[in-house]
């Protein structure tokens, strides 16, 4: 087992589970009830017994004390354990769904079996059906699991070959396509290629943590290297955490973000950071803990370039969020300056140097599992904000349209909140996961995000 | 924090969660829907914000590495986290309910908050509503939590004062009754007193484990002491376990067990052991692992005597289950001899000596958290079987009749299965909890229990 996988097992504690999640909402096809769609998911999933090897593997030595030296593969998977099906209680509002995800995201995965679960969730009064999936970060080798997830969807609403993301058939379908036309990339790779690389970023950068000190040392002696280390202020986002989680999620039309980006001469990514900055400023003020200095966000960035088949060249930039500034206009200017500066540094670096830059930015994570450590050490940033752009085209599972997609990421010791945004089919889905006891009223962030976006829309166009 | 509480925190690992559970089924009152009853539970529970201190406390130092030296109390409880409400998917059979309990019983409780949860479960096609509760063993000080649970029920079907088991009002009601009539015990204490003492047994005896070696040493040098140590055979029940669970539960009419007891001149407790012996013999044969020698069960026994207000005088007896004998008649004779012999030993001992006996019987538990230990060490018994007799009178919550009550106990390293039986309102509810990966097809035990009981019923009366 490579260290890039085992470190997620080593770093895991009962307060810091190392699984990532995804929450997806599907609208039943014309004439189909939510009940029928949920049963269809359940039947197809239970029928997908030819399982891709990555969803069969588990650590050979599950006890925490043992070294993680090898994976082993189970012969089959106990679907009664891995596939869960529940109905939400009335009234079946989105907040009931988010409560369910909150309650379940804190529970550790069993290491004695393949480390993933999928929950089929009915009972939403809007008639949609949700899938909540949970996969251990050591199991998904970079982008592969997310690619499989997307491969289980189709751009064709008439396609009825929908199956589970672990189905070997998906792997075979892809191989057939590649064999048929070696030079042409499949429609899905064309559509999702860039997105996948950025998805990968979030995983890889977090993944770098334990190796960070080593890489950082290399960076410091390289004269081309520009050290990004700055001190982030102390906030409630940077506490020691418990295992209980609180999850908030909401959509905004990408078109609203794009309009702001156009008028303010900034990127969609900058708009997302500006929304988060406004929202976090309000949230921390509510909680009586807005620091005098600006929050610092760590933002994963893809180094993927056109025609580059390797999606793993990634780094992170350290962005001053300007939460110390009351004026939205001044915040926008400061964020633009901060991300532009950071990007210029990255553009001037070779891939390996960029990786070292990212590693140095996140080096305090290397010590995150030492209890109490986070309370007393300086830190380079306050939270991780990831933006995972996906395809604009609508996607379908057996004719049911994917109508919302929200990442459920990993809070860590000293990093009690994580914001991950995915844009898919014209919607920007914000997934905000936090340590429950440490971050009260987390769902207020959603209201503050809307307020922050409205303020950005009200700004006069940039000259 | 006394060691009798902290040891449950110290002994806990991700593979060996130390919480106990209870599954209760309620039949809605005349004219009430399951939906209305579930909502009534939810409303009353959410309204019970005056919380008894034990349901507010949590370890002051939650990290596993720290010593557990103190409890601290939270000011309030985040009901959105502790109270969960779900609906089972169709068809809503009992097996769907058991699957839900199985999936949830393996998840650790968060130590950063009061360590309990309650799940309100709808969707059973038989129209009943289930409550599944989970409380950490370090939090329930012996019998108190179970007494509170029973105190939230009434013998009067017209009583509409039903509330949550954590409601301080229950404590106050009881104090008022005691103040009004100091010499007369309340109806509930009269009804449940003896039962509670035996309930306590299970907790206390398991609880003794880490101190066992010490007590056992004292016992060995006491010349009145009769050492019960015997070697139990090696079986699949005695493996190192994972965190995933499998729960099976079913009722039998107490009258059937009582008839067998009467005809065979044995106790109800002996009948339960004989049923388990027959069922385990069949189960282990199915699994290809029936040992040549008999399984040994550890059976908690109450030393509670009339007029004794202290419910904590408990011990355990080691019972030869005679699983090596094919003939049900021979098994019954061997079990009767084994329990009669064990009881004679206990009767001749003073309470402290009995405690030492119980401790010696279970001493290998003291080492159960050392990884791999269980695979290589001799053991004194194969599983714990507890019988918790409750009141014969029907009990109600706001007019909804308690229609089934199944304990969900704790599998441990080397003790992959636990059987706990509770008799209440004329039904004997068997709760069988096992480590999921280690005990496949656990639910087959239910069929085997019925077969075993039928075989006992077919025996000629004892002379």
UniProtKB/TrEMBL annotation, chains A, B:
Pfam families per record: WS_DGAT_C, WS_DGAT_cat
EC number: 2.3.1.20
Keyword annotations: Acyltransferase, Glycerol metabolism, Lipid biosynthesis, Lipid metabolism, Transferase
Pathway the protein takes part in: Lipid metabolism; Glycerolipid metabolism; triacylglycerol biosynthesis
O-acyltransferase WSD1-like N-terminal domain residues: 5-272
Keyword Disulfide bond: no
Domain O-acyltransferase WSD1 C-terminal residues, every copy: 311-456
SUPFAM superfamilies, per the entry: CoA-dependent acyltransferases
GO (cellular component) term, any one: plasma membrane
GO terms (BP aspect): biological process involved in interaction with host; glycerol metabolic process; response to hypoxia; response to nitric oxide; triglyceride biosynthetic process
Reaction(s) the record says it catalyses: an acyl-CoA + a 1,2-diacyl-sn-glycerol = a triacyl-sn-glycerol + CoA
Superkingdom to which the source organism belongs: Bacteria
One annotated GO molecular function: diacylglycerol O-acyltransferase activity
Keyword rRNA processing on entry: no
Record PANTHER family: O-ACYLTRANSFERASE (WSD1-LIKE) FAMILY PROTEIN, WAX ESTER SYNTHASE_DIACYLGLYCEROL ACYLTRANSFERASE 4-RELATED
Protein name: Diacylglycerol O-acyltransferase
